[in-house]
Amino acid sequence: MPGEDGARGGGEPESARVARLIRDDILDGVRPPGDRLVERDLADELGVSRVPVRDALKTLVSEGLVTLRPRTWAVVREFTASDIADLREVRSALEVLTFKLAAQRHTRAGLARLRAALDAELAAARAGD
C-alpha cells in the first residue's frame, strides 16, 4: 500500500515506478511513436490512481519521450528526420570521445577484459547465438 509520499514498500515513489514502466514500454517499442497515453487507461492498466500517472507523464514530457495534448491525452513522441539527424550527430561525437578516452586511459587489465569480451562475442556469433 502506498505511503503518504506515494511510495510502496520498496521505497520507490509510485509516480517514479509508473514513469519507469511507461518509459521501458516506450524504449522497448511496446508503445510506439504516436501511441495515445490516456491517464485513465494507464491507471487501470497499472493498478494505480490517475495522480501518479499524471506525474509520470510530466516526467516523461521533461525527458522528451512524451508530448502532452491539452485536455485530451498524451502521445509517445514521434521523432522527425531532423531529430534523428541531431541524435546521430551527438552519438557520433560521443563515440569519438569514448574511443579517445579509452585510448588514453586503458590498462593491461582493461585490455584483457576487452579482448575476452570480444572473443566471447565472436564465439557467440560463430555459434549463431
TrEMBL record:
Which keywords annotate this record?
Answer: DNA-binding, Transcription, Transcription regulation
Show the SUPFAM superfamilies listed in the entry. Answer: GntR ligand-binding domain-like, Winged helix' DNA-binding domain
Question: Which PROSITE patterns does the UniProt entry name for this protein?
Answer: HTH_GNTR
In this protein, which residues make up the domain named HTH gntR-type?
12-79
Q: Supply the Pfam families for this chain.
A: GntR
Q: Can you name the source organism? A: Actinomadura montaniterrae
Name of this protein: GntR family transcriptional regulator
Q: Please name the GO terms that the record assigns under molecular function.
A: DNA binding; DNA-binding transcription factor activity
Its domain of life?
Bacteria
Known InterPro entries for this protein?
TF_FadR/GntR_C, Tscrpt_reg_HTH_GntR, WH-like_DNA-bd_sf, WH_DNA-bd_sf
